[in-house]
TrEMBL record:
Residues 55-90, 183-218 form the EF-hand domain. GO terms for molecular function: calcium ion binding. Keywords: Calcium. It comes from Eleusine coracana subsp. coracana. The keyword Calcium applies. It comes from the Eukaryota. PANTHER family: TROPONIN (PTHR23064). It holds the Pfam family EF-hand_7. The gene is gb24905. This is EF-hand domain-containing protein. SMART domains: EFh.
C-alpha cells in the first residue's frame, strides 16, 4: 500500500520540483542576462571554446569522484547530502529532495556525472561563486570560469533570458553569424530535437548542459563500456 502510494506521488513531486526549479533558474538567468555583458557574439566563438569546456568538465569529474564516496559512478542520496552540507547551501529537506529530483534527469540511480554537472552549475547560478570555493578552494577559479561560459553560451541562444531556448531563436542564432552558408533547416531541427530531452518544444539550461557535455565528447570518453581508443 505504502509502495503504491509512493509510486503515485513521486511523479507529482517530480513535476513540482521541475516547476519550482525551472522558475528559480529562469529568474536567475533573467537577472544575469540584464546585468551582464554578453560573452558570446557568435556560434563560432562558442565552438572554439569546446576544448576549454572539455578541460573544465574533467575538473568537475574530479569533484564528482570525490563526492562519489563508494566510487560506484553515481551519487546517491546520502552522498548528495554530504555534498550539499559541504557547500553550506541553505535549504530545507524538501528543497534538497527537489534538487535531487530535478538533476536526476534520467530518473534512475541517483546522480551520474552529467547530472552532477547540472547540479553544480545550478548551485553556482543560484548561490554564487562561494559554492565552488567550498567545493574546491584550489579549483574554484577554473570551475567558475567553466560555469560562466556554459551559462553564457545558453544565454546566447536564449536571447530574452527567460530560461528557455526556442527553436526559432536557435535557428536564427545559428544562421545570423554564418556569412558563408546557412545551416540547413533539417539540421537545426535535428539538433534542437536532440537537446529537447523531454520533448516539450523548449530547451532549458539542464537540457543544454547535457548537450554541451555530449558535444565536448566527455560523456562517451568516460563511459568505460564503449572505449574505442586503440
Ligand atoms: Ca556513490
Ligand atoms: Ca540519474
Ligand atoms: Ca525541453
Amino acid at each position: 500500500m505504502g509502495a503504491v502510494a509512493s509510486i503515485c506521488v513521486e511523479p507529482m513531486k517530480r513535476r513540482r520540483a521541475e516547476k519550482n526549479l525551472d522558475e528559480k533558474v529562469s529568474a536567475a538567468l533573467r537577472e544575469r542576462a540584464q546585468s551582464k555583458k554578453r560573452t558570446f557574439r557568435s556560434l563560432n566563438s562558442i565552438t572554439m571554446r569546446l576544448p576549454r569546456f572539455k578541460e573544465g568538465l574533467r575538473d568537475i569529474k574530479d569533484v564528482f569522484d570525490h563526492y562519489d564516496e563508494n566510487s560506484n559512478g553515481t551519487i546517491d542520496n546520502d552522498e548528495l547530502r554530504n555534498c550539499l552540507n559541504k557547500l553550506h547551501v541553505q535549504m530545507s529537506e524538501t528543497e534538497a529532495d527537489d534538487i535531487h529530483r530535478y538533476c536526476d534527469v534520467d530518473h534512475r540511480n541517483g546522480i551520474q556525472f552529467p547530472e552532477f554537472v547540472v547540479l553544480l552549475c545550478l548551485m553556482y547560478l543560484l548561490f554564487g561563486p562561494d559554492v565552488t570555493r567550498r567545493v574546491s578552494e584550489f579549483e574554484s577559479e577554473k570551475l567558475n570560469y567553466v560555469f560562466d561560459e556554459l551559462i553564457d553560451a545558453f544565454l546566447f541562444f536564449d536571447k530574452d533570458g527567460d530560461g528557455k531556448m526556442r527553436r526559432k531563436h536557435v535557428t536564427r542564432r545559428m544562421n545570423e553569424t554564418s556569412h558563408q552558408e546557412r545551416t540547413p533547416g533539417h539540421i537545426t531541427a535535428r539538433l534542437f530535437k536532440e537537446m529537447d530531452l523531454d520533448r516539450n518544444g523548449k530547451v532549458n539550461l539542464k537540457e543544454f548542459l547535457f548537450a554541451m557535455i555530449r558535444w565536448a565528447g566527455l560523456e562517451t570518453e568516460d563511459d568505460g563500456s564503449d572505449e574505442t581508443s586503440p
